[in-house]
Amino acid sequence: MYEDKERWNKRHVEQPMRHSIEPIVEKYIDRATVGNALDIACGIGRNTHFMAEKGFLVDAVDFSDYALSEIKNLATITKIEADLDEYNLEYNKYDLIININYLNRRLLPQIKETLKSGGLLIFETFIVAHGDFQQPSNPEYLLRKNELLHAFIGLDIIYYEEHDDVNLRGEKTRVASLVARKA
């Protein structure tokens, strides 16, 4: 566990990400009811800060204490240092959940349950790609074709797409993007 935290801390220091808001978040955030929000694997808080600016009370969860130290100390942001392999989400708590560039299949059913009725989910992460694509080397961190869509059956799907993209470090990737609302 300590090795994982050190690996993530080192990655945030040596390979810093752009501070820009994820385009899918920027495009769809206004469809969410302002209230409680969750940023899963928030990193340095680029989307966390944007949600707070929009009036949300944000729980920003990450394993990297370095990344969390880069998030502003605001009354509207609660920083939660947690190993997401062990962390459990509270039932029926959030009006908005954002999960960007992170996959933990154990959390997928919990994400559905922690969304309030009418709550919005914005989820985008890497999908298996062949050819000249940058992707996590561990297949556990890669979605299969249509896996994200199937994981959130039962929610009202607003948008779903699997497409080529450029990651925060300027590398070519393939991602699955989903925006859905809980009835």
From TrEMBL:
Provide the protein name: Methyltransferase domain-containing protein
From which organism does this entry originate? Sulfurimonas aquatica
What single Pfam family name could you report for this chain, choosing any that match?
Methyltransf_25
Which keywords has UniProt assigned to this entry?
Methyltransferase, Transferase
| Tree of life domain | Bacteria
Q: Which GO terms describe its molecular function?
A: methyltransferase activity
Single Gene Ontology BP term?
Answer: methylation
Q: Domain Methyltransferase: where?
A: 38-119
